[in-house]
C-alpha cells in the first residue's frame, strides 16, 4: 500500500488505506449468438449457470463479481474456458465455443450485424464499477491531483464514445 499514486480499479473493495472516487458503472451482459425467437432479450442472473462461459482467470474483477453474486444465490458459474484477453474471449464466443459476461462495449465495432448479441443480465442487474483509487495515507501532490482530474474528465468521455 502506498506505492502507487493513482489507479483505475474495477469493483474495488473499500479499505481504510485507499480513497475511492467512482467514475462509471457498466451493465454486464451475456455475450453470445443471437437468441432464438423463444428466448428473451434479457437473461435472469439465476439462469447464468446453464451457459458454458469463457471467462478470465481469477482474480479478474468481472470473474470475481460474477462468482460472488451467483454464490449469493447458492449458484456457481459453468466456466468451460479461462482466457484473460477480452478480444480472444469475444473471438471464441464468435466461434461458438461458449458465452461471455462482459459489457456491451466488448462487442467489436466492425462485426457482422447479428453475429453476436449482448443480452443484459437482470433480476438483479449485474454492474461493473470503475473507480479512481489514491492513497489515503499520504497527501496528494499537485501532479497527482492534476492526473486524477484529467482521468476523471476523460474516462467517461472515452467510454461514452464507444
Structure report:
The protein is an alpha/beta fold and about 160 residues long. About 25% of the residues lie in helices and about 30% in strands. The chain has three helices and eight strands. The chain has helices at about 60-70, 85-95, 140-160; strands at about 5-10, 20-30, 45, 50-55, 80, 100-105, 115-120, 125-135. Strands 1, 2, 3, 6, 7 and 8 form a six-stranded mixed β-sheet that branches. The model has no long low-confidence stretch (mean pLDDT about 90).
Concise summary:
The chain is α/β, with parallel strands linked by helices. Helix content is about 25%, strand content about 30%.
Strand content: 25-35%
Q: Taking Cα atoms only, what radius of gyration do you get, to the nearest Å?
A: 18 Å
The DSSP helix count reads 3
**Total E-strand runs:** 8
Taking the sheet with the most strands, its summary is: 6 strands, mixed
What are the low-pLDDT stretches, counting only 5+ consecutive residues below 50?
none
Question: What series of H and E elements makes up the topology?
Answer: EEEEHEHEEEH
- What structural class should be given to the helix and strand makeup? alpha/beta
Annotation keywords:
6-stranded mixed beta sheet; two-stranded parallel sheet; 162 residues; alpha/beta; 3 helices
Secondary structure blueprint with pairings:
Layout: E1 6-10, E2 18-32, E3 43-44, E4 52-55, H1 61-71, E5 78-82, H2 86-94, E6 100-103, E7 117-122, E8 127-135, H3 142-160
Amino acid at each position: 500500500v502506498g506505492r502507487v499514486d493513482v489507479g483505475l480499479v474495477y469493483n474495488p473493495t473499500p479499505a481504510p488505506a485507499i480513497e475511492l472516487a467512482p467514475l462509471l458503472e457498466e451493465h454486464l451482459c451475456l455475450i453470445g449468438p443471437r437468441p432464438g425467437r423463444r428466448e428473451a432479450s434479457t437473461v435472469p442472473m439465476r439462469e447464468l449457470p446453464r451457459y458454458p462461459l469463457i471467462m478470465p482467470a481469477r482474480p479478474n474483477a468481472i470473474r470475481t463479481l460474477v462468482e460472488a453474486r451467483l454464490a449469493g444465490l447458492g449458484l456457481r458459474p459453468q466456466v468451460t474456458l479461462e482466457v484473460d484477453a477480452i478480444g480472444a474471449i469475444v473471438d471464441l464466443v464468435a466461434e461458438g465455443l461458449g458465452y461471455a459476461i462482459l459489457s456491451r462495449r466488448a462487442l467489436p465495432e466492425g462485426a457482422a450485424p447479428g453475429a453476436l448479441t449482448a443480452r443484459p443480465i437482470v433480476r438483479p442487474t449485474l454492474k461493473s464499477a470503475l473507480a479512481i483509487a489514491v492513497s489515503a495515507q499520504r497527501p496528494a501532490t499537485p501532479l497527482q491531483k492534476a492526473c486524477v482530474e484529467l482521468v476523471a474528465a476523460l474516462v467517461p468521455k472515452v467510454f461514452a464514445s464507444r
